[in-house]
Amino acid sequence: MNELENQLNYPLGDAMPEPGRTMEVAPGVRWIRMSLPFALNHINLWLLRDEIDGRQGWSVVDCCIARDESRAQWEQVFANELDGLPILRVIVTHMHPDHIGLADWLCQRWNVRLWISATDYHMARLGALGPSAFGGEAAADYFASHGLNDPASVEQIKARTRYFPSLVPSVPRQYRRMSDGDVLTIGGRSWRCISGYGHAPEHIA
């Protein structure tokens, strides 16, 4: 652990939600922790208590990758953690597979709209539908041009030709655009969208 890590304060200590369960971290804000089969070994997802057009329910923030284990954990959440209320919308912060992988499944499961930035939406669509899907020779050349000189790593990247669509098999055909400076009303609270460029093309925080 480095010196800065020693200064971190975790208000919940070592407490974390069990698979398929949530933990309330603030009124109307529930934390979901889903496992991933790679490093990092988990992703944090969120349920926000919401109301849209007079309907009470929840907004989902981020989705996990598309695999049976993740769907099963979501079904546990639906059965035990929603207080009998529906999902009203799916918000995705950016287009990486662990964040958008199950967006299409969730949107179809609850007949709701995906909310995401335009750039990340179209990049995810390209990745899910495109023949190279962000991998293969082009990706290996890109990393090599930026200093990756380990032959084994370059070959590993070159071999990952269908990696993105294996985790994101589909993306909703429609979406609601989020842009920098937009203010979303979720559960009576105002949330301002802040765009970041680097971690993803148009990450929304």
Give the secondary structure arrangement, pairings included.
Elements: H1 3-6, E1 23-26, E2 29-35, E3 42-52, E4 55-61, H2 68-80, E5 87-91, H3 97-100, H4 103-110, E6 114-116, H5 118-129, H6 136-145, H7 151-159, H8 163-167, E7 176-177, E8 183-186, E9 189-192, E10 195-196, E11 203-204
Parallel strand pairs: 4-5, 5-6, 6-7
Antiparallel strand pairs: 1-2, 2-3, 3-4, 8-9, 10-11
Overview of this protein structure:
The protein is α/β, with parallel strands linked by helices and 205 residues long. It has a single domain (12-130, 167-204), classed as Metallo-beta-lactamase, Chain A. It has helices spanning 3-6, 68-80, 97-100, 103-110, 118-129, 136-145, 151-159, 163-167; strands at 23-26, 29-35, 42-52, 55-61, 87-91, 114-116, 176-177, 183-186, 189-192, 195-196, 203-204. Strands 1-2-3-4-5-6-7 form a 7-stranded mixed sheet. Strands 8-9 form a two-stranded antiparallel ribbon. It has a two-stranded antiparallel ribbon with strand order 10-11. Helix 6 (136-145) runs antiparallel to helix 7. The chain is globular, with a radius of gyration of 18 Å. The mean pLDDT is 94.
End-to-end distance: 27 Å
CATH topology: Metallo-beta-lactamase, Chain A
In helices, the fraction of residues equals 25-40%
Tally of helical runs: 8
